[in-house]
Amino acid sequence: MTIEPELDPSRVEVGTFYPHPREVVWQALTDPTLVERWLMASTGFEGARVGTHFLLSVPSSPPSEIACEVLEVTPGVAMTWSWVDMRAPQPARWIVTWTVQPQGRGTRLLLTHSGFDIDNKREKMARNALERGWKVCLSKLSEVLDRL
Predict the structure, then answer these.
(1) Which residues of the chain form beta strands (DSSP E)?
(2) What are phi and psi of 2, to 5 degrees?
(3) DSSP 91
(4) Which residue from 28, 31, 38, 105 puts its CA 20 to 30 A from 81's CA?
(5) What's the number of CA atoms in the CB half-sphere (13 Å) around residue 142?
């Protein structure tokens, strides 16, 4: 089996098409009330403002938090967050980037979650779990978009 050179196992990349205008998809990614409907409850998230620090509340047992910061924003096009799982014994700092592009009669969303050390067993497991989790979240995002 060969691995294509452009595939990077240290990243999660999930692309999804939504039959909604880019502005509506961007709103769902940046409006704190909408983000809570498809991702997680947050404290301090103020939308797409560089430098904003916030916490996402993980509905797990025991509960946990993801510490984030908005690192970069190109309004209506892309947003990048830092992502640190506070429950990890040695929290790693990962990067999540959202990119939206008009495509036909809708919008293509690419989510990239990067920075995993796949030689580290815990980070490799976290990467695989997050890949599954992001697919669920983006399905929930579709439901939120359908109601806007």
Answers:
(1) 11-18, 41-43, 53-58, 64-74, 78-85, 93-103, 106-114
(2) -110, 150
(3) P
(4) 105
(5) 14
